[in-house]
Design a protein that fits this description.
Helix content is 71%, strand content 0%. By secondary structure, the protein is mainly alpha-helical.
Length: 123
């Protein structure tokens, strides 16, 4: 009878097999999200849904206004098309002016540093 109790214990301790995790130094944690993560999700859900609702209203308003304004664009197109061309040429001139200014100043800055000896020669 004593041999039987020794071979078959009444209580059995069962432990899950844990693998050594090299990334966490052997600690194998499996827990749920933290309180700050839950709070962030609970805070961001109403904010995101509000922003999506506002985006939907904005899109609907834009489509309605475009549908109402299309006949006006067609009626006034002889005046609007030359105006749009003039504005686009003006914008192109403005941006090209600043592009040329930036290119010239960067070239002068390069030459200034080259003559001072701050930049090594490429040859």
């Amino acid at each position: 009878m004593a041999d039987r109790e020794r071979n078959y214990p009444h209580q059995v301790d069962v432990h899950p097999h844990r693998h050594f995790d090299h990334n966490t130094g052997g600690k194998n944690y499996q827990s749920g999200p933290s309180k700050s993560q839950v709070l962030a999700v609970l805070t961001l859900l109403p904010v995101a849904s509000t922003l999506l609702a506002l985006a939907k209203l904005t899109l609907k308003g834009t489509v309605i206004r475009l549908a109402l304004a299309t006949p006006l664009f067609i009626i006034f197109s002889p005046d609007l098309v030359p105006g749009a061309i003039a504005v686009s040429i003006g914008v192109a001139v403005f941006f090209s002016f600043w592009a040329f200014q930036l290119t010239g100043l960067s070239s002068l800055y390069y030459l200034f540093n080259r003559f001072r000896g701050l930049l090594a020669s490429s040859s």
